[in-house]
Write a structure and sequence with these properties.
- This protein is an alpha+beta fold.
- The protein has one domain.
- The protein contains six helices and six strands; from the N terminus they run βααβααβββαβα.
- The strands form two sheets. A four-stranded antiparallel sheet has the order 2-5-1-6.
- Helix 1 packs across helix 5, helix 2 packs across helix 5 and helix 5 crosses helix 6.
- It is globular, with a radius of gyration of 20 Å.
Length: 223
């Protein structure tokens, strides 16, 4: 199994929502583990990368249709075919985007030693933002629309494991790098400016390879 890494840095506060809130605290809570450490689930992360890939393939169909078949095959290898059997399964497995391992281990140990509570850990890494819907006619807040949403603070760094069940081809890595370059937002409210991020594809040693692999993609589609 071939391993790569995806490094993510939040450039703006983001909410990797878990789909519910906490009564009396927030209407939208972030995903976090038993130690209060926020994360983005692997399935959600792969879905976001897959959505970027679908947009890239769609654009290629419009501007260079002769390239679509080649890159659609790479897309199928990376993300699989919808409703397919095992022969169409994806070779790419995406793990959850979590805080760096050393930081997770240190905070988990502090929670275990009761030096800090999980709630305090969550408060260290997040903040609660409040917002309300505005009446377009009057410019005043609409009644009963105040919502509290927890956000992960900008500057927070996450890492996700990318594992291939078989060695990726040159085209696989080139297309994946293009997806990573296009991946710029995540979480709730991302279409309203929240959750802007920078992502970097790295090898197993943590060395960035996005630029190199993307250069191969750009050269191929520019022919």
């Amino acid at each position: 199994m071939t391993d790569y890494r995806l490094h993510i840095t939040l450039l703006r506060d983001g909410t990797f929502g878990r789909g519910d809130g906490v009564a009396g605290v927030v209407d939208a809570e972030v995903q976090h583990d038993p130690n209060g450490l926020p994360y983005l689930g692997g399935r959600a992360l792969k879905g976001l990368l897959g959505a970027e890939c679908a947009d890239i393939i769609f654009a290629l169909e419009k501007v260079c249709p002769d390239q679509k078949t080649k890159w659609a095959a790479a897309e199928s290898r990376l993300f699989g075919d919808s409703g397919s059997d095992l022969t169409g399964a994806a070779i790419l497995r995406v793990g959850p985007a979590e805080l760096p391992a050393d930081l997770r281990a240190a905070l988990a140990q502090d929670v275990q030693d009761e030096k800090i509570t999980r709630a305090e850990v969550l408060d260290l890494l997040t903040a609660v933002r409040r917002q309300t819907a505005m009446d377009a006619a009057t410019g005043a807040p609409k009644a009963e629309t105040l919502r509290a949403m927890r956000v992960i603070l900008r500057g927070t760094v996450f890492e996700a494991a990318l594992q291939f069940s078989e060695d990726p081809t040159h085209d696989d890595l080139a297309l994946l790098a293009a997806c990573v370059k296009a991946f710029r937002r995540a979480g709730s409210g991302r279409n309203r400016g929240r959750g802007r991020l920078k992502a970097e594809l790295c090898d197993a040693d943590g060395q960035p390879i996005t630029a190199t692999c993307f250069a191969d993609f750009r050269k191929a589609v520019s022919r």
